[in-house]
C-alpha cells in the first residue's frame, strides 16, 4: 500500500460516504430489475397555454415504485440509470409507453418525453424514435423530445446530428431547464429547438421581483420569439408566479398550480373536462 492510499491524512475516511455508496449499490441492483418487474410507470403533467389555460400537452415523467424500497424519486434514480446506462432501455420503454398513451388523446394534444445524453449519443436512438412512432401510430408532430444542454458536452457533433435526424422526422425538440446548465448561445445558433423551458428558479425569482430573473426571462422570451421558438415556464406554483409569467409573455406554463404529474386515467379525464369547457 502506498502512503497515499493508507489511512490518509487529507483523505479522511467518512462513514457517511460508505453508507451512501452502499445505498446506491442497492438501488442500482434493484433498478436493473425494475423494468422486467413492472415497477416503472409514467406520470403525465399538463402544460397549459399561458393565456387560454387550455391544455396543450403533457410531459411524461418516470416513476419508480420499488418492491424493495418503495417509491424512489427521479432525482435519485435517474442519475443512477444514467451512470449505468440503464437509462437506454428504461428511456426506450418510457418513450414507447408515452407515445402509446398520447395516441389515445385528441390529435391537438402533444406529448413531451425527456431524453438523457446517454440515450441521445446511442447510435440507434433515432431509429428507436421511428419505431415508437410507427408502433403507436402517433404522428411525429405530436412528439416533443426534451433535452438539456448537457447533451452537447461530451460529443456536441454527435448530439447535433441526432437532433437533426429527429427533427427531420417532424418531432419537436425542447431545451429543458434552460439557464441552469452550460447555457451557450452557440447551442441555440446551431440547433433548431421548438421550445425553451425556463427553469423554475427564474420563475421563483420573477415572483420575488428579482431584477436579474425578470431581465433574463424577458431576454429569453424575446430571443425565443425572434428565433421562432415558444417558451414554457417550469414549476409555476402560485397565482403570483402565474401573473408575473403572463406579464413576461411566456407562451406556456407547467406547474403544480395547473396540475401535478398524474396517472394516465386522470390525464385522459382532464382532457375530457377541457374539451367540455371548450364547447360550453
Ligand atoms: P424535468 O424534466 O425538468 O421535469 C420537471 C420536474 O419538475 C418534474 O420532477 C416535475 O414533477 C417537477 N415539477 C413540475 N411542476 C412543479 C412545480 O410547480 N413545483 C415544483 N417544485 N416542481 C414541479 P420529477 O418528476 O421529479 O422529475 C425530475 C427530473 O427527472 C426531470 O426534470 C427529468 O430531468 C428527469 N426525468 C423524469 N422522467 C424522465 C424520463 O423519462 N427520462 C429521463 N431521461 N429523465 C427523466
Ligand atoms: Mg423535462
Ligand atoms: Mg425541466
Ligand atoms: Mg427542471
Automatic annotation (TrEMBL):
EAL domain: residues covered: 24-275
Protein name as it appears in the record: GGDEF domain-containing protein
Shown segment, full-protein numbering: 496 to 775 of 775
